[in-house]
Each structure stands twice: as structure tokens, then as C-alpha cells.
Amino acid sequence: MADEKRLSARRKHTLKSCMLVVATNLLEAESVVKVDEREKFLSEKCPPLEVPHSRDELVELCHKLHEQINLSEEERYSIEFKLNMVINEVRDLSIKIVDLRGKFKRPRLKKVRMSADAMLKALLGSKHTVNMDLRANLKQVKKEVKEEDKQLRDVGDWRKNVEDKSDRKKMFDS
What we know:
Layout: H1 2-5, H2 9-45, H3 55-103, H4 116-124, H5 147-153, H6 158-173
Protein name: Troponin I, fast skeletal muscle-like
GO molecular function: actin binding
Pfam family, one: Troponin
């Protein structure tokens, strides 16, 4: 059965090569999508630059670009600040977790031979009034002794018993 389920070396090789081809195609498609997204983002954020011919228009364009740079720098700074805050918070929480784990180590417990009554007394203190004597709660059954069993126990002298048996044997022989 195991031989029927195993793949041959040639089949394994073809499967691996097919998987590699599919993986390379997926990676190429992903890289194309990333390039398209980047170009789309850049076209939205940075429109094509038209250089004006007069000095006043150039100064105005510089002021406009300077304002856009300031806005993007403010955005970058706020995002960076938020990121640093989150990183610090994560670091603090991980330190707290390590501290909590370190403080509450479970001690190795020793085996103690203790009865149930003693254990309840230790846990509940003087409030413990329940008696855990389990044998006292069991139902007591009187055993009926049969007469035959009594006779077997009270055999007495073994020689008598042998003589009785010999009489019985004589009965069966006749």
C-alpha cells in the first residue's frame, strides 16, 4: 500500500518544476502590480511639472512646491511620531509581560500524606465540622452463615472426619 501512494522521482520533479513556474509567474504579476501602484501614487501626489518662462511665475511655482514639501514633511513627521509611540507602547507591554511572568513562578509542590479531614481542617480552619470518615457512611450488611460452612469450619478432630468419610464410601460401594 505504501508503495502505491508514494510518488516516483520523475513525478516529484515535474510537480516541483510546475510549482516553481507558477510561483515565478505570481511574483512577476505582483511586481507589475507594485510598479503600477507606485506610478499611480506618484502621478496623484506629484503632477507633471510645467516650467514657466517668466521670473514671477517661477517664484510662485517655488512657493507652491515649498508649501507642498512642508505638508508632506508634516505628514511624514506625524506618522513617524505615531509609529514611535506605538513601538514604545509595545516595548513597555512586553516588559510588563516579562515582569509578570517572572514574579509568579509556580513553586514545586512536595508530596504530603494527609487525610481528607486534616486537609479540610487546614483549608477551612476551625469552621471544619464535616467528618470525612467514609467507612462510617457505608451500609453495613450482615453475613448469613450457612450451616454447612459452620460444620466445615468446626471439623474438630480430623480422624473423626476420615472415619465419617469411610462410612459414606461404604454406602456407595454397596
